[in-house]
Amino acid sequence: MTFARKSLTFAAAALLTLTLIFACGAWAEEDPVDFTIQVTPQSLTAPGTVSVSLRVSNPTDQDMQTPVTLYDPAGNVVPSFGDGGSYILKSGDSRPWEGEWNVTEEQLNAGEITYTLKYMLPGADGQAAEFTRQATARIEYAGEHVALTVNRTISPEVVRNGGTATVTYELYNSGNVELKDIRVKEKISKTAQKVASLPAGKRQSLTFTSRIGNADLTSSADITYQAVGSTKTLTQKVDETVIPLATPNLKMELSSPTAGVNIGEAATLEITFTNAGNVSYSNVTVAEAKKGEILTNLSIPAGATVKETVEFILNEPTTFKVTATLPDNTGETKTMTKELSLGVFDPEKTMLLTLNLTADQDTISQAPADVRFHLTVTNNSNVKADKIAISHGETAIYTIASMEPGASVTLDRDVRVSQAGKFRFTATVKDSLNNLVSFDSNTVQITYAQPTSAPTQVPVVTVAPPELVTAAPVDQAVTQGRDIARTAAVALGILLGAGLVLFAVSSVIRLKNRSKSNAAYDHLDLAERRDYTEPADEEEDDLDESGEADDDYDDRDGPEDLLPLRKDAEDEMPHEKLIRDAKAAEEAAEDVAEDAADELADGEIEGGYRVTRSEETENTAPAEEAAEDAEAEAPRRRHRRAKRAEDEDA
To answer: For 204, how many CA atoms within 13 A lie in the half-sphere containing its CB?
Structure first.
């Protein structure tokens, strides 16, 4: 087997395939058949067996009128496909086929195997023509490849208490080398199982079983094997999985929205399955005793709720008996049965009430507000109505005992509404089939509006009669507090009065002292002459009346009437000194005034200056300076007075 040989064989096969494709190209648009193929393994180290999976289908919306026939790579009809190798494909139908094929050395060299379909189709001229379709699978020549594929299947998925759990392992040699000494140890079984040999592409199954008690089972497996021609042991592990203990909890309910229907109307049956357990149900069928199967192929998974509805036309009262057949995933099938009776009545006996609602106002200016509703209930049916319950929402208003056909009942109700809005009343009554039926009134709209302000009126004042008020008893603690406050107020008043008296006395004293002080400044000096260039002879001040020196003046340093003023300053009080200075100033002022008057009378003042007191100079000389000046002028004044006295005597 050389590389050139393989290449030529492959090229020849490719050319044949292209030829067939172009030969059938004219029919491709009209060909209704799909044809696919798969093989395992896809590589071999030597000629051997492969598994083949084929699928033939008709995806069009037209049924084929003639069958398709399957041929193997050797050109022989495959008898296990359809009926003796042929099968008619309907619209949307498909036909699978699985089998084995022993790959020859020639096919391995070509690298493929081809299966063929043959069938008849009408041609363009209306005559039947044979069509050929082929499906080719690639097979590669490869070196040695060791592989084992393991698939585990647990049945049932959930096991009832006391039931048997079955674990099946499918061993598939997915390599191209034969395997030997395959050993499988399953956890639920104490005994391991063995497979002596497994050729490439072959499968073999091993099954383990175990009874389950009141607890779950756990499945896992350890697998060992060797390749032919090798002493190396290979291992493979299948992970753990739980086989749960079944806890079925399925409920079935049969109901209808109404207790009955009118004659000739459809009644609705509602069938509800509630599965609260861990058991799943599939392919469930539901049958009615008289109607036969009404539901098929239902699935009810664990933890799910399934609801189905069916309708029946009723002409007479009927009792439905419904039975559900429930195959589950524990391998068991259970049944459940429910019954339901539905009535049928004459439309002439249908209950019909009408409600007319009005209100005394359609606008409110405050909330809550009182509104009067007027409700008229009329029985427009042909049967008597009993125990008619009138309500507003969930609030019961009134119950009418009974109403004959055509009768009316009027209700007036004062209701406090919490807000504006829409208001509607409801009447509830049972019909002839004991069904509870309700009838609504018309809707009344009440709106809200701001109140209108009333015109302002002058209020009429009414003098209230005098009321006799009795003083409340005073608490002793309050009385004591008032006494203490009164005493404190008196003491404060006394202190305030004493302070005012002291202030007045001090003010008077200050005023007297101020007046004395002001008087001390009221004096001026008058001189016989004023010569600012040549001072007067001081000796003439010392002369006595005879023109001689006055010894007494020199000895006493001052006239006799000024001796009190020469009192030792240390022995005088401040106010005494102030009084003394003021008195001396006053006397000096009087003397000056007299001298001035005499001089004016005698006309003795010639060419000198006259000094007078003005408003500007008043009170500008301090009292002490005035006293000193008076003391200095005293001898001269005495001299002048003596002279005036002599003149008067003369």
So the answer is: 17
Q: Report the alpha-carbon distance of residue 400 to residue 213 in Å, rounded.
A: 64
- Three-class secondary structure of residue 590 per DSSP: helix
Q: How far apart are CA 368 and CA 456, in angstroms?
A: 26
Instruction: Calculate the alpha carbon distances from 364 to 442, 446, 455, 639 in Å.
Output: 20, 7, 20, 123
The answer to whether 375 touches 426, Cβ cutoff 8 Å, is no
With 50 as the cut, is the pLDDT of residue 524 above it? no
Residue type (1 letter), 228 = V
pLDDT tens-digit profile of 238-297?
A: 999 999 999 999 999 999 998 878 888 899 999 999 999 999 999 999 999 999 999 999
631 in Cβ contact with 584 (< 8 Å): yes
DSSP bridge partners of 169: 152, 206
Phi, psi of 301 (to 5 degrees): -65, 160
Report the pLDDT averaged over residues 196-213: 94
What is the C-alpha to C-alpha distance for residues 516 and 522, in angstroms, rounded to an integer?
Answer: 10
pTM of the model: 0.39
Q: Which pLDDT value is given to residue 525?
A: 42
- Residue appearing with tokens 């005499």: 598
Yes or no: say if 412 and 372 are a contact pair by the CB < 8 Å rule.
yes
Separation between Cα atoms, residue 79 and residue 76, nearest integer Å: 9
Alpha-carbon span 329 to 359, nearest angstrom: 65
Question: pLDDT of 430-447, one tens digit each?
Answer: 887 777 889 999 999 989
- What DSSP line would sit under 48-114, residue for residue? -EEEEEEEEE--SSS--SS-EEEE-TTS-B-TTTTBTTEEPPPTT-EEEEEEEEE--HHHHHHTEEE
Query: Of the candidates 235, 245, 320, 248, which has an alpha carbon nearest to the alpha carbon of residue 281?
Result: 248
Average pLDDT over residues 17-35: 55
